[in-house]
Model the fold of this input.
Amino acid sequence: MIQITVNGNTRALERSLDVAALLAALQLAGKKVAVERNGEIIPKSAHGSTLVLDGDQLEIVVAVGGG
Amino acid sequence: MAEDKLVVAGKPYRSRLLVGTGKYKDFAETRAAIEASGAEIVTVAIRRTNIGQNANEPSLLEFLPTSRYTILPNTAGCYSAQDALRTLRLARELLDGHDLVKLEVLGDSHSLYPNMPETLDAAKQLVKEGFKVMVYCSDDPIQAKMLEDLGCVAVMPLASLIGSGMGILNPWNLQLVIDRVKVPVLVDAGVGTASDAAIAMELGCDGVLMNTAIAAAKDPVRMARAMHQAVEAGRDAFLAGRMPKKLYSATPSSPTEGAIAPSQPKAA
Done:
Protein backbone atom coordinates (compact mmCIF):
# COMPACT_ATOMS: atom_id res chain seq x y z
CA MET A 1 0.00 0.00 0.00
CA ILE A 2 1.18 3.50 -0.74
CA GLN A 3 -0.34 6.79 0.21
CA ILE A 4 -0.52 9.82 -2.08
CA THR A 5 -2.23 13.20 -1.96
CA VAL A 6 -4.37 14.21 -4.92
CA ASN A 7 -5.78 17.73 -4.98
CA GLY A 8 -5.36 18.00 -1.24
CA ASN A 9 -6.97 14.63 -0.34
CA THR A 10 -4.98 11.61 0.72
CA ARG A 11 -5.61 8.34 -1.09
CA ALA A 12 -4.32 4.85 -0.57
CA LEU A 13 -3.24 2.86 -3.60
CA GLU A 14 -2.67 -0.90 -3.69
CA ARG A 15 0.61 -0.37 -5.50
CA SER A 16 2.50 2.24 -7.47
CA LEU A 17 0.78 3.22 -10.71
CA ASP A 18 1.92 5.31 -13.61
CA VAL A 19 0.17 8.66 -14.05
CA ALA A 20 -1.93 7.39 -16.98
CA ALA A 21 -3.22 4.48 -14.90
CA LEU A 22 -3.93 6.79 -11.97
CA LEU A 23 -5.94 9.13 -14.22
CA ALA A 24 -7.90 6.14 -15.48
CA ALA A 25 -8.57 4.99 -11.92
CA LEU A 26 -9.85 8.48 -11.12
CA GLN A 27 -12.14 8.39 -14.18
CA LEU A 28 -10.12 11.15 -15.80
CA ALA A 29 -8.75 9.20 -18.74
CA GLY A 30 -9.13 11.19 -21.94
CA LYS A 31 -10.13 14.36 -20.08
CA LYS A 32 -8.35 17.64 -20.71
CA VAL A 33 -6.34 17.85 -17.50
CA ALA A 34 -2.80 18.77 -16.51
CA VAL A 35 -0.82 17.03 -13.79
CA GLU A 36 1.76 18.40 -11.39
CA ARG A 37 3.69 15.98 -9.18
CA ASN A 38 5.63 17.37 -6.22
CA GLY A 39 5.68 20.79 -7.84
CA GLU A 40 6.84 19.58 -11.27
CA ILE A 41 4.71 19.29 -14.40
CA ILE A 42 4.31 15.77 -15.75
CA PRO A 43 3.85 16.25 -19.50
CA LYS A 44 1.18 14.15 -21.22
CA SER A 45 3.92 12.38 -23.16
CA ALA A 46 5.32 11.11 -19.85
CA HIS A 47 2.04 10.00 -18.22
CA GLY A 48 2.62 6.40 -19.24
CA SER A 49 6.19 6.29 -18.00
CA THR A 50 6.04 8.24 -14.74
CA LEU A 51 5.34 6.24 -11.60
CA VAL A 52 3.42 7.73 -8.71
CA LEU A 53 5.31 6.94 -5.54
CA ASP A 54 4.49 6.80 -1.85
CA GLY A 55 4.12 10.29 -0.39
CA ASP A 56 3.69 12.05 -3.75
CA GLN A 57 1.69 15.25 -3.86
CA LEU A 58 -0.35 15.57 -7.05
CA GLU A 59 -2.35 18.41 -8.45
CA ILE A 60 -4.72 17.64 -11.31
CA VAL A 61 -6.26 20.72 -12.90
CA VAL A 62 -8.74 21.75 -15.57
CA ALA A 63 -9.83 25.02 -17.16
CA VAL A 64 -12.89 26.55 -15.50
CA GLY A 65 -14.87 29.75 -15.91
CA GLY A 66 -13.02 32.76 -14.59
CA GLY A 67 -12.04 36.31 -15.34
CA MET B 1 -11.11 52.78 -43.72
CA ALA B 2 -7.88 50.93 -43.03
CA GLU B 3 -8.16 47.76 -41.01
CA ASP B 4 -7.59 48.50 -37.36
CA LYS B 5 -6.38 45.50 -35.44
CA LEU B 6 -5.22 44.80 -31.94
CA VAL B 7 -1.81 43.16 -32.18
CA VAL B 8 -0.75 41.11 -29.16
CA ALA B 9 2.58 39.26 -29.29
CA GLY B 10 2.66 39.70 -33.05
CA LYS B 11 -0.80 38.24 -33.65
CA PRO B 12 -3.60 40.47 -34.97
CA TYR B 13 -7.12 40.38 -33.54
CA ARG B 14 -10.20 42.08 -34.96
CA SER B 15 -11.88 42.43 -31.58
CA ARG B 16 -10.54 44.73 -28.90
CA LEU B 17 -12.88 43.27 -26.33
CA LEU B 18 -11.52 40.39 -24.26
CA VAL B 19 -13.89 38.52 -22.00
CA GLY B 20 -13.84 36.25 -18.99
CA THR B 21 -15.86 33.08 -18.56
CA GLY B 22 -16.76 33.24 -14.86
CA LYS B 23 -20.09 33.70 -13.09
CA TYR B 24 -22.37 32.56 -15.91
CA LYS B 25 -25.47 30.45 -15.24
CA ASP B 26 -24.20 27.60 -17.42
CA PHE B 27 -21.90 26.90 -20.33
CA ALA B 28 -24.63 27.60 -22.87
CA GLU B 29 -25.03 31.12 -21.50
CA THR B 30 -21.25 31.53 -21.40
CA ARG B 31 -21.02 30.61 -25.04
CA ALA B 32 -23.94 32.81 -26.12
CA ALA B 33 -22.54 35.84 -24.29
CA ILE B 34 -19.06 35.35 -25.71
CA GLU B 35 -20.47 35.02 -29.17
CA ALA B 36 -22.44 38.26 -28.77
CA SER B 37 -19.37 40.04 -27.43
CA GLY B 38 -17.42 39.30 -30.59
CA ALA B 39 -14.38 38.54 -28.41
CA GLU B 40 -11.61 36.41 -29.85
CA ILE B 41 -9.46 36.21 -26.71
CA VAL B 42 -11.25 34.51 -23.85
CA THR B 43 -9.78 34.10 -20.39
CA VAL B 44 -10.22 30.99 -18.23
CA ALA B 45 -9.13 30.04 -14.72
CA ILE B 46 -7.16 26.93 -13.76
CA ARG B 47 -8.55 24.87 -10.87
CA ARG B 48 -8.35 21.44 -9.33
CA THR B 49 -10.59 19.00 -11.11
CA ASN B 50 -13.46 17.36 -9.24
CA ILE B 51 -12.51 13.77 -8.66
CA GLY B 52 -15.14 11.08 -8.52
CA GLN B 53 -18.01 13.47 -9.15
CA ASN B 54 -19.84 13.85 -12.44
CA ALA B 55 -17.26 12.06 -14.50
CA ASN B 56 -19.24 12.80 -17.62
CA GLU B 57 -19.81 16.48 -16.92
CA PRO B 58 -18.92 18.61 -19.95
CA SER B 59 -15.88 20.84 -19.61
CA LEU B 60 -15.64 24.54 -20.35
CA LEU B 61 -13.16 24.02 -23.16
CA GLU B 62 -15.67 21.89 -25.06
CA PHE B 63 -17.75 25.05 -25.36
CA LEU B 64 -14.85 27.23 -26.48
CA PRO B 65 -13.27 25.67 -29.56
CA THR B 66 -9.64 26.70 -29.87
CA SER B 67 -10.14 26.91 -33.62
CA ARG B 68 -12.29 29.93 -32.94
CA TYR B 69 -11.01 31.43 -29.70
CA THR B 70 -7.62 32.22 -28.27
CA ILE B 71 -7.79 30.81 -24.76
CA LEU B 72 -6.04 33.01 -22.23
CA PRO B 73 -5.39 31.07 -19.01
CA ASN B 74 -5.15 33.31 -15.97
CA THR B 75 -3.78 33.13 -12.45
CA ALA B 76 -6.88 34.41 -10.70
CA GLY B 77 -6.68 33.54 -7.03
CA CYS B 78 -2.88 33.49 -6.86
CA TYR B 79 -1.30 35.56 -4.10
CA SER B 80 2.36 34.80 -4.77
CA ALA B 81 4.67 34.73 -7.77
CA GLN B 82 5.35 31.05 -7.08
CA ASP B 83 1.67 30.05 -7.21
CA ALA B 84 1.18 32.08 -10.39
CA LEU B 85 4.16 30.36 -12.02
CA ARG B 86 2.92 26.89 -11.09
CA THR B 87 -0.57 27.72 -12.33
CA LEU B 88 0.65 28.93 -15.71
CA ARG B 89 3.02 26.02 -16.20
CA LEU B 90 0.03 23.76 -15.59
CA ALA B 91 -2.01 25.87 -18.03
CA ARG B 92 0.62 25.57 -20.73
CA GLU B 93 0.65 21.81 -20.26
CA LEU B 94 -3.16 21.71 -20.24
CA LEU B 95 -3.40 23.74 -23.45
CA ASP B 96 -0.77 21.79 -25.37
CA GLY B 97 2.00 24.36 -25.19
CA HIS B 98 -0.12 27.48 -25.64
CA ASP B 99 1.98 30.31 -24.22
CA LEU B 100 -0.18 33.47 -24.22
CA VAL B 101 -1.22 33.95 -20.59
CA LYS B 102 -2.76 36.44 -18.22
CA LEU B 103 -0.71 36.99 -15.10
CA GLU B 104 -2.35 38.39 -12.03
CA VAL B 105 -0.89 38.20 -8.55
CA LEU B 106 -3.31 39.52 -5.99
CA GLY B 107 -2.48 41.47 -2.86
CA ASP B 108 -5.45 40.59 -0.69
CA SER B 109 -8.85 39.00 -1.03
CA HIS B 110 -10.64 42.14 0.05
CA SER B 111 -9.47 44.47 -2.72
CA LEU B 112 -8.03 41.97 -5.24
CA TYR B 113 -5.56 44.76 -5.90
CA PRO B 114 -2.39 43.57 -7.64
CA ASN B 115 0.67 42.77 -5.55
CA MET B 116 3.15 44.53 -7.80
CA PRO B 117 6.45 43.25 -6.37
CA GLU B 118 5.23 39.65 -6.76
CA THR B 119 3.75 40.48 -10.18
CA LEU B 120 7.10 41.85 -11.38
CA ASP B 121 8.94 38.78 -10.05
CA ALA B 122 6.53 36.40 -11.75
CA ALA B 123 6.58 38.33 -15.02
CA LYS B 124 10.36 38.17 -15.17
CA GLN B 125 10.42 34.41 -14.66
CA LEU B 126 7.53 33.73 -17.06
CA VAL B 127 9.19 35.71 -19.85
CA LYS B 128 12.38 33.75 -19.21
CA GLU B 129 10.39 30.51 -19.59
CA GLY B 130 9.01 31.64 -22.94
CA PHE B 131 5.52 32.72 -21.91
CA LYS B 132 3.84 35.67 -23.62
CA VAL B 133 2.58 37.60 -20.65
CA MET B 134 -0.42 39.91 -20.53
CA VAL B 135 -0.32 41.33 -17.06
CA TYR B 136 -2.93 42.70 -14.67
CA CYS B 137 -1.32 45.63 -12.87
CA SER B 138 -1.85 48.85 -10.99
CA ASP B 139 -2.39 52.01 -13.02
CA ASP B 140 1.09 53.24 -12.07
CA PRO B 141 2.93 54.30 -15.24
CA ILE B 142 6.36 53.55 -13.77
CA GLN B 143 5.54 49.95 -12.91
CA ALA B 144 3.68 49.49 -16.20
CA LYS B 145 6.89 50.51 -17.95
CA MET B 146 8.88 48.09 -15.79
CA LEU B 147 6.58 45.28 -16.91
CA GLU B 148 7.05 46.29 -20.53
CA ASP B 149 10.81 46.38 -20.06
CA LEU B 150 10.69 42.86 -18.59
CA GLY B 151 9.13 41.70 -21.85
CA CYS B 152 5.40 41.56 -21.12
CA VAL B 153 3.34 41.67 -24.33
CA ALA B 154 0.50 43.76 -22.88
CA VAL B 155 -0.09 45.68 -19.67
CA MET B 156 -3.56 45.62 -18.17
CA PRO B 157 -4.15 48.17 -15.43
CA LEU B 158 -7.29 48.06 -13.37
CA ALA B 159 -9.73 50.93 -13.92
CA SER B 160 -11.36 50.17 -10.56
CA LEU B 161 -11.50 47.09 -8.35
CA ILE B 162 -12.15 43.68 -9.93
CA GLY B 163 -15.85 42.95 -10.03
CA SER B 164 -16.78 46.38 -8.64
CA GLY B 165 -18.37 47.84 -11.76
CA MET B 166 -17.19 51.26 -10.59
CA GLY B 167 -15.96 52.29 -14.02
CA ILE B 168 -12.92 54.37 -15.00
CA LEU B 169 -11.94 56.02 -11.72
CA ASN B 170 -8.61 57.52 -12.74
CA PRO B 171 -8.57 58.39 -16.44
CA TRP B 172 -5.45 60.52 -15.93
CA ASN B 173 -3.39 57.59 -14.71
CA LEU B 174 -4.61 55.40 -17.54
CA GLN B 175 -3.55 58.12 -19.94
CA LEU B 176 -0.12 58.26 -18.30
CA VAL B 177 0.25 54.51 -18.75
CA ILE B 178 -0.89 54.73 -22.38
CA ASP B 179 1.61 57.52 -23.06
CA ARG B 180 4.40 55.71 -21.32
CA VAL B 181 4.36 52.18 -22.74
CA LYS B 182 4.49 50.92 -26.32
CA VAL B 183 2.90 47.49 -25.85
CA PRO B 184 -0.91 47.35 -25.88
CA VAL B 185 -2.63 48.78 -22.80
CA LEU B 186 -5.90 47.10 -21.89
CA VAL B 187 -8.21 48.05 -19.08
CA ASP B 188 -8.66 44.91 -17.02
CA ALA B 189 -11.21 45.21 -14.24
CA GLY B 190 -13.71 47.78 -13.14
CA VAL B 191 -15.90 48.25 -16.19
CA GLY B 192 -19.56 48.24 -15.17
CA THR B 193 -21.50 49.25 -18.24
CA ALA B 194 -21.10 50.13 -21.90
CA SER B 195 -20.13 53.77 -21.40
CA ASP B 196 -17.20 52.70 -19.18
CA ALA B 197 -15.84 50.57 -22.00
CA ALA B 198 -16.30 53.40 -24.46
CA ILE B 199 -14.50 55.83 -22.15
CA ALA B 200 -11.55 53.46 -21.81
CA MET B 201 -11.28 53.20 -25.57
CA GLU B 202 -11.70 56.95 -26.09
CA LEU B 203 -8.77 57.50 -23.74
CA GLY B 204 -6.66 55.50 -26.17
CA CYS B 205 -6.62 52.08 -24.53
CA ASP B 206 -5.94 49.29 -27.00
CA GLY B 207 -8.59 47.06 -25.55
CA VAL B 208 -10.76 46.16 -22.59
CA LEU B 209 -10.99 42.91 -20.66
CA MET B 210 -14.13 42.28 -18.65
CA ASN B 211 -16.13 39.51 -17.06
CA THR B 212 -18.56 40.57 -14.34
CA ALA B 213 -19.98 43.53 -16.27
CA ILE B 214 -21.38 41.04 -18.77
CA ALA B 215 -21.96 37.97 -16.60
CA ALA B 216 -23.69 39.85 -13.78
CA ALA B 217 -26.00 41.88 -16.05
CA LYS B 218 -29.66 40.83 -15.94
CA ASP B 219 -29.36 39.91 -19.60
CA PRO B 220 -25.73 38.92 -20.16
CA VAL B 221 -26.09 38.27 -23.88
CA ARG B 222 -27.56 41.69 -24.51
CA MET B 223 -24.90 43.35 -22.35
CA ALA B 224 -22.22 41.47 -24.28
CA ARG B 225 -23.59 42.96 -27.48
CA ALA B 226 -23.64 46.42 -25.86
CA MET B 227 -20.00 46.02 -24.84
CA HIS B 228 -19.07 44.91 -28.33
CA GLN B 229 -20.61 48.08 -29.74
CA ALA B 230 -19.20 50.32 -27.01
CA VAL B 231 -15.64 49.13 -27.56
CA GLU B 232 -15.99 49.69 -31.29
CA ALA B 233 -17.63 53.10 -30.81
CA GLY B 234 -14.97 54.19 -28.32
CA ARG B 235 -12.18 53.03 -30.60
CA ASP B 236 -13.66 54.87 -33.57
CA ALA B 237 -14.10 58.03 -31.52
CA PHE B 238 -10.47 57.81 -30.42
CA LEU B 239 -9.24 57.31 -33.99
CA ALA B 240 -11.55 60.00 -35.33
CA GLY B 241 -10.04 62.49 -32.89
CA ARG B 242 -12.57 64.27 -30.79
CA MET B 243 -13.29 68.00 -31.08
CA PRO B 244 -11.57 70.17 -28.52
CA LYS B 245 -13.55 71.01 -25.42
CA LYS B 246 -14.49 74.69 -25.16
CA LEU B 247 -15.40 75.39 -21.62
CA TYR B 248 -16.55 79.00 -21.85
CA SER B 249 -17.87 79.55 -25.35
CA ALA B 250 -20.79 78.13 -27.23
CA THR B 251 -20.47 77.72 -31.00
CA PRO B 252 -23.62 77.27 -33.08
CA SER B 253 -23.80 74.24 -35.33
CA SER B 254 -25.96 76.04 -37.93
CA PRO B 255 -24.98 79.02 -40.16
CA THR B 256 -25.25 82.38 -38.46
CA GLU B 257 -26.06 84.06 -41.82
CA GLY B 258 -29.40 83.92 -43.61
CA ALA B 259 -31.78 83.42 -40.73
CA ILE B 260 -35.24 84.85 -41.34
CA ALA B 261 -35.98 88.37 -40.10
CA PRO B 262 -36.44 88.58 -36.39
CA SER B 263 -40.03 89.07 -35.35
CA GLN B 264 -41.06 92.45 -34.02
CA PRO B 265 -41.78 92.46 -30.34
CA LYS B 266 -45.52 92.36 -29.70
CA ALA B 267 -47.03 95.60 -28.56
CA ALA B 268 -47.94 95.53 -24.93
Summary: The beta strands of chain A are 2-6, 9-13, 34-37, 40-42, 57-65. The longest helix of chain A spans residues 19-25. Chain A touches chain B through 26 residues (CB under 8 Å).
